[in-house]
Amino acid sequence: xxxxxxxxxxxxxxxxxxxxxxxxxxxxxxxxxxxxxxxxxxxxxxxxxxxxxxxxxxxxxxxxxxxxxxxxxxxxxxxxxxxxxxxxxxxxxxxxxxxxxxxxxxxxxxxxxxxxxxxxxxxxxxxxxxxxxxxxxxxxxxxxxxxxxxxxxxxxxxxxxxxxxxxxxxxxxxxxxxxxxxxxxxxxxxxxxxxxxxxxxxxxxxxxxxxxxxxxxxxxxxxxxxxxxxxxxxxxxxxxxxxxxxxxxxxxxxxxxxxxxxxxxxxxxxxxxxxxxxxxxxxxxxxxxxxxxxxxxxxxxxxxxxxxxxxxxxxxxxxxxxxxxxxxxxxxxxxxxxxxxxxxxxxxxxxxxxxxxxxxxxxxxxxxxxxxxxxxxxxxxxxxxxxxxxxxxxxxxxxxxxxxxxxxxxxxxxxxxxxxxxxxxxxxxxxxxxxxxxxxxxxxxxxxxxxxxxxxxxxxxxxxxxxxxxxxxxxxxxxxxxxxxxxxxxxxxxxxxxxxxxxxxxxxxxxxxxxxxxxxxxxxxxxxxxxxxxxxxxxxxxxxxxxxxxxxxxxxxxxxxx
Length: 562
What we know:
The chain is an alpha/beta fold. The protein is 62% helix and 10% strand. The chain is built from 17 helices and eleven strands. The strands form three sheets. The chain has a five-stranded parallel β-sheet with strand order 6-9-10-3-11, with helices on both faces. It has a four-stranded antiparallel β-sheet with strand order 2-1-4-5. A hairpin with an 8-residue loop joins strand 1 (351-360) and strand 2. Helix 6 (135-177) runs antiparallel to helix 7.
């Protein structure tokens, strides 16, 4: 006993309690936010459940009354009693019909809000946070874990309140009719299922299953998104086996849950069946001795079910709460790396970008960029070159304020001398063309609209020509040609030129290209550079590249060394 108390005291440390309180408070604020506007409907849903409990006890009283009147054990107007029973039945049915409709509407609307809130938060996560979770894991959390939290808030917790009231009300009514039977039925319930062992087992199984669901989602997402790569590497069988192994682990966890559930249900079924049988025999014995009426006998049997039923409901609630709380922990972790909302500040003037003794490293004590100083002037083109791993991509992330300098600073300066520190708010002033194929599924027009939503055909045609992407007009559907995920259906060079056209629709005065010519031939590269240098003659052009063809056309070349 002392050992058990010591274990409990170690768990209930001030730090653990503070963490749990803060997590719960954060989750409560989030739930209140996504349920805004529906609080009164949720309250109505809870009160309809309470009303249902009251009506169930009224029906027991009505049944006892009408049977006693019918058998002559009690005086009364049988027709009046029957009318009251029918009226109470109709009222109860009306509430039962309305409540699911309201609950279903609230459930779907709040579920959508939860998913949107999580998606919005993930869109604003920091650079380091973006690599913390795999896409498959995120999809599992947004769908499965959000549903668990929604179920806990909309179903489990309200049911806990309603079921507790039903248990208390039914027990009190049964106690009034026969105190010995009431205490016997309550004492016969399988309280062992509320033990520490039971809850610990439920928590372990819940966490293990959620972790395995995330792992399976990760493998499935990679198999589907990289299926062409997997086939080209001849690794189809290997990836199939990996998915099969993950599914097998999930199956074994599921079977363990089924066995545990079967055992607990068996204990409950045996206990509840025995309790009902005892109540029936007890009623028969008292009825035989003329100590109760037929109505009271009927009330016994109904109330036994209304005591055992709620207890069965209460037994089912803790696993749901454990699963829900595990999901809360998993979802709240997604908000840890969310950056504040951005307030874009567009500067419609030529801009100079300055790096002043900037240092940065992803790991402490391992700098990638160290004391880097450079100036990028408007009306000039600069190439940043260097071997792989020297920090060229890191410079891009610093410019876009995706990561922040550990030392030094960066600033933008207008031709009038106004300066602005580089932050996410001034990111809108950078026109960025990332490396590789960055198209999304949809039409070419929809991909271009990412640069300027709703841009008309004349403007789209202009940027397509500037990006040397005239092949678009030769496609059967032109701008409305559909492309698959990651630009499937287009060559690497075609996708790259559409990405350049998309960037040129943005209004920024600093153009930033990451390996913009990596998939282009010499002639196309020359035409593209001619267009960019002419069209962007008043802007600041920066090319991160290995291509000597681009370096030759730039006004300065910055070589980064290890």
